[in-house]
Structures
1.
Amino acid sequence: MLSNHRTTLTQFLIEERRRFPLAGGDFNALILDIAIACKAIARAVAFGELGGVMGNHATEQGGTVNVQGEVQKKLDVLSNAVFIRRTEWAGNLAGLASEEMDQPYQIPKQHPRGKYLLVFDPLDGSSNIDVNVSVGSIFSVLRSPKDLDDMPRDQQRDVVEADFLQPGSLQVAAGYALYGPTTMLVLTVGNGVNGFTLDPNLGEFMLTHPLMQIPEDTQEFAINASNSRFWETPIKRYVDECLAGKTGPRAKDFNTRWIASMVAEAHRILMRGGVFMYPRDTKDPGKPGRLRLLYEANPVGMIMEQAGGRASTGERAVLGVQPDSLHQRIGLVFGSRNEVERIERYHAEPVHVESDNPLFAVRSLFRN
Ligand code: AHG
Ligand code: MN
Ligand code: MN
């Protein structure tokens, strides 16, 4: 009833495609299959305890952990299977990779292969699932390697990790679904960011948030402060200055938020601005950051940049980073452009050395 006048996701994709008269329908078909996967996950999430999908995943041998050593929830495993099932059959993908799979997934021999790769985190923020707080799915679409094109299907090699190690600037599309009070799909195909709300009556994503833009300035930041003793100096400085409020160097009060669901934080930031930080820290020297480059930082990075925001490692644009492994972690800062650039400036400035001499204090004229 409320959706009659709105553009559906299908209509939106068809109209977008008219800009590229030579384009086949594969890309649109892939996005629509991803949308169906997201709708299926939204339903599983909505049934909660009634659906028997809460809690940790277990086999006869006991609980399972993914390649990063994180305990898998039932819904992590289920959502991963839904993504595969919905996208593997159509001949649009050459392979898939996800947070929940150690190695790239090969398209089964009975299905044709296609010209895209799909990389995804099937359920982001899954520690929130048992407490009924928003979770999401996030994905990135890349082109598949050229050498697969000129061989018949049965002579093609498997896709390998190296095929997926493309910088975020090469993404063809990126998006996320947010399973919150409403289910939303937010998508960029490299021409701005558009938000669709799932109409539960029609089961269709309807364009409700065309050309989303992130405000350049903000007074809201998101960081897990329990890690503060492990932060590097530029992040400490940034947060301290925010916390100092009106009487501090920023001369305004800041607000904080932390949902522990990156997708949900990205959505809040798209809607009203803000800055999200999960920086590299010294907590575990084996982990250069918490979030994963290929299926968290890169898709969120493309969405941020396409909405006028910015995504950075703290030092440089996330989208420029050449990945070196499938499950690589990275420091991530994203959101309102002026704040992210400020954090990058703090990283570029020489490290402040504590000094008793007031002339060399942080805000003095003579900073070391
Ligand atoms: P995932 O559930 O896919 O492992 O990702 C969780 C991520 C991210 O969504 C969130 O921002 C962050 O981990 C939360 O980390 P903390 O538990 O350190 O707050
Ligand atoms: Mn995640
Ligand atoms: Mn996940």
Note: The helical segments are 9-17, 26-47, 74-87, 161-164, 233-243, 262-272, 293-306, 337-348.
2.
Amino acid sequence: MSRSAHPAGPRHADVLPEGHYAAPPTDLNVLDPKVWSQTVARTADGGTTVGGIEVARLAEEFGTPAYFLDEADFRARCAAWRDAFGPDADVFYAGKAFLSRAVVRWLHEEGLNLDVCSGGELATALAAGMPAERIALHGNNKSEEEIERAVAAGVGRIVLDSFQEIVRVAHIADRLGKRQRVQIRVTVGVEAHTHEFIATAHEDQKFGIALAGGQAAEAVRRALKLDGLELIGIHSHIGSQIFDMAGFEVAARRVVGLLAEVRDEHGVELPEIDLGGGLGIAYTSDDDPREPHEIAKALNEIVARECEAAKLRTPRISVEPGRAIVGPTAFTLYTVGTVKPLDGLRTYVSVDGGMSDNIRTALYDAEYTVALVSRRSDAEPVLVRVVGKHCESGDIVVKDAFLPADVAPGDLIAVPATGAYCRSMASNYNHALRPPVVAVRDGEARVIVRRETEEDLLRLDVG
Ligand code: LLP
């Protein structure tokens, strides 16, 4: 690949959408700690390590594509959330971001609780020994079987998402001779500044019961009447990948407003509120996420202030971060297969994975960055699009980023911040085999979710 065929600088800026990298980073060999997990480091000879292990060695041992999860970073993030909220609050990790038995054990050891949203997630949580009382069950259309399993197991709370579910859970609890602790999920009418598909607090969508028009107050009325339910609080989740604290604050204020209404009407002070997950992370160097202690401080202050104004006892707060805990802790390692320079436009770098291991770029226009990690290169930066091996042109992993112009087949490149919603949303499109998740810590690497095999595919194909 000749240098002149891939000019860097202004010509590249011309074809980039506004707001994206206006210019390549000054040194592509430097890995921005904002987007890479804590223990990722470059070595003197130009390689890269995570948890003290060379990525080239990891690729040899585990193959590519593969997700490498920095366990120390994961645990540190759990601890940061736990400590930021303190003993008078509860942190529920949102398992949908990424769940495996090892992750459940780490959460347990780090003192976190777990939010599950399906029978499969519940089964994983229980199989790995998470005490049922530390599990919350979510979902806008939980099946009777899922509800029954959760109630029978004794989950700490079920978050009721609809009027039908209030009755459904109450009946099942009655039948099992139990009284189930529940929260009611409300939509507070906030337009979260994020992608439409992951905003969840405006009224025109499927989740929750609207505060508007007295719907949520009616839900509380009904829930309080049912013997099978112990209504412990109100839940709000406004969306995901959010940077602006204003939405959380408005939500907190409106949820406390409902607590005051409930107290006035029923003489009952609900003891808990859950303000959901949604805190954004840095996918590229342009992102500036808030830290757990900042969100804890903001939420605690606003809830305390609103409660004081309404003369309410301050409820116990819980939150449900998923992405903010696991997202930054992993990167996906790929091997470059083909390189196709398009003069004056960009270079297509095809890797051995694609939309089957990261659907977020195609689905949400998500932005990622990429780095050459198997060697150092001082070649000039070239604008690249990292694409997969699937049969469609929308199979894009990283839309616009820079790699050294000498990137070549056989190089290892890594996409950081893929810990959340990548393996958990991975598919078998084109009968791709879903990549393994390898946990790395203190010089040791171990597979926590193994690579899928052709036998796995054929086992499901029983025709
Ligand atoms: N709590 C509830 C009720 C949720 O629905 C979610 C995410 C969370 C907590 C955790 O949100 P987080 O802290 O991870 O933002 N697949 C999308 C994200 C969908 C989020 C769904 N609910 C993505 O890849 O961006």
Note: The pocket of LLP is lined by residues 94, 96-97, 115, 138, 198, 237, 240-241, 276-279, 320-324, 360, 364, 420-421, 425 (CB under 6 Å).
